[in-house]
């Protein structure tokens, strides 16, 4: 197990470098951060060159990348458009987004697996068709439409929930945005669980479990669900990154000042340190989630563990 | 669920019978050839209302994205601020948006952007992905290793995040730039599936047999492996088409995708969203059209998948 | 009936009810191609300590009958349209789901063909064995573990104590089948149904597993229904045989009589198609044609299109199970000719 973890960690290094480099290239090479600073005005060439030098932009791209990464690992993410250190923005943004992501994740996992299990156990019947239709609609209607519609009806018209999230983002306020953020993933989880449950419920070992005289509840939870959840767990883990990225949309709708909001501001103001910094942290979170999924996979499926 | 039997072999003694503990009784038909998967899949599809509904809807969408004038006579860009946010009137069944443009005309014309982004991205992703993935799976070795690592890198970037970063920097805002971006970040999804399918197909006994008989690489790929790898790629690509359309709208909504004067559902929804309290009709029609389009492609992909995947029969 | 006096038949005490008796069982499946009639009036019985071998090709209905007895038939698409399954004289088909569940595993246990797919791949064998004790007898994890080790020793799995935490894929095929047997034996059931228990194994291992099963059966005096397509397995361990074809029993007999003088052309064909050393160089005999499609079983005797002895009557009249001497029956209009041939 220890060797497996180390191997996976080593495999992650090139992925981390590649991903961050890709983002770095996109932001620094394709755009011109100096020109962006001056907006529509043409900058004075001498000043521009000075800024370029100060920002390490007069070096080759790989050198710039190495320089930037060195800074990051010493905790220096640069300064944002508003002059604040990027780390300070992160300190206020990440807790909010992580809370939102967690709320969405719990909703996604619980409702998704629940619906999928119901549909998978009653394959071909009304409950199954209902869940399928529901998931189709949820996937088809874009998040930002669901978001505005829910906000309008639940928040504005019926006053069931707070239409915007209050300062500090209390959990109660995050439930509606969480539902919106979780929506599409929830539908995927439900469908994946359904397929997996339906497939496994035909497995020979399940027939054995029934033949052993186990109560139905035990057959379903210990034998069926445990096996069926293996692919679902994989999806859930890899989806954490997707949820955090999806927060760009959700946070905009509900006016939440989290990662998505800051990232969006960084892009609007063309501030490379903010964009690359936030994306780098997101990539790390994403990779870490993948690693955890891999380890969890090995725990859930002994055939992997010893392979 | 019919038990698979080899109808060719003249079945013989019990001692020779296939060692299968039949969960269901065998359904052998004397003299009848086993139905091929393809005709079976077609048989399955032809009985699915979902297949026809989504197929017709998609056909309709393609037709109006080529000739929007067929059902909308107006110009989506000729707007009259005096009519800002007005409700439906005769000749303008969906009312007007904030700029006073006719919502109906814009909704009809919006199909073109969505459908073209969807189709171009999917074609690009499918071609690039299956080419790279298929070759990696077929030849293996370092080619496969390098490709796997590269696709890991692309998988490391959530597509929405990458889109926001990439498109805000490129500043194109056209169907082409958006499609190019989607191909750039989308190909690993198909590449993985193509790779897996090719590896599975390569290990099939009859493919091994063809290799043993000296079939050339090209012949093996085209004749034996490609047909088998195609089904999963088609399924994933169809469903992906729907998600690309949805993604285009999301990016346009965020202001980094298509940009005015382009006519796009995403842009219209974005503009309508702030006015939902005053003029919900502005949101309703483009949002409805977008959802229906995405739904149609996902439903089609679903129907095709169900038909091609005998496991779930 | 007793085991020893089968041949004479005279000693069989008629008054006692058999351990298990299947009466006129009919099962059908609803499929895309129509209604498949898998079981069409099966009768058989087993007593304690007795081994009944049910012989037939794939699709003959032998496994479906077993699954119906066990109560693990998939319904739908399966449907029991007629018949009774009496366990100690009580019809299990009229029992509640809970009553049946309590019989499963505790009174009647089943051994499946493919142990690799029949054991849960993500749970240790110790857990899967211990589950029997924990669920049915309310034992603690610790007690169940001790009992499981005992069981594994019982079925002669080496180093049971060390291997109890291992997973099914870590065992060899023969060992896995022993675990299946151990699981079936856990609660010392009165009846075991073994569905092709050795088919998936290497020939060398087949005999060991079969011997173990037979030995344990004698030890616990259990009834055993052995479902197989292998006539070779049957000869050594079975007391009586029921041959099935297209969902019906076509011949039933004490084991030795059937080898010497088969009373049904189908049985005869099966026996002739076993390869024998003294026939080296000759073409192997094969019953012509294919087993019938169960959605369109031929009228009259289902075997008539393939039968070398078929007459006109065979296509019109369904043959009943004619008594052929003591303890024997043949569902052939021409059983006399067959036996005397």
Automatic annotation (TrEMBL), chain A:
List the transmembrane segments: 12-31, 98-119, 131-154, 174-192, 275-300
Q: Name one GO biological process term.
A: transmembrane transport
Extent of the signal sequence: none
Topology versus the membrane: Multi-pass membrane protein
Q: Which GO terms describe its cellular component?
A: plasma membrane
InterPro entries referenced in this protein's UniProt entry, alphabetically: BPD_transp_1_N, MetI-like, MetI-like_sf
Tell me its family.
Belongs to the binding-protein-dependent transport system permease family.
Q: Please state what the protein is called.
A: Oligopeptide transport system permease protein
TrEMBL record, chain B:
Q: Where in the cell is it found?
A: Cell membrane
CC terms in the record's Gene Ontology section: plasma membrane
Principal place where this protein is found?
Answer: membrane
- Does the keyword field hold Amino-acid biosynthesis? no
Membrane disposition:
Multi-pass membrane protein
User: What's this protein's family per the entry?
Assistant: Belongs to the binding-protein-dependent transport system permease family.
Tell me what this protein is called.
Oligopeptide transport system permease protein
Automatic annotation (TrEMBL), chain C:
* Superkingdom per UniProt: Bacteria
> What organism is recorded for this protein?
Actinacidiphila yanglinensis
Q: Name the chain's protein.
A: Peptide/nickel transport system ATP-binding protein/oligopeptide transport system ATP-binding protein
Single GO MF descriptor: ATP binding
Keywords attached to this entry: ATP-binding, Cell membrane, Membrane, Nucleotide-binding, Transport
Membrane topology according to the record = Peripheral membrane protein
UniProt-listed GO biological process terms: peptide transport
Q: Where in the cell is it found?
A: Cell membrane
The entry's family comment says: Belongs to the ABC transporter superfamily.
| GO CC aspect terms | plasma membrane
Matching Gene3D superfamilies, A to Z?
Answer: P-loop containing nucleotide triphosphate hydrolases (3.40.50.300)
Domain called ABC transporter: residue spans: 20-271
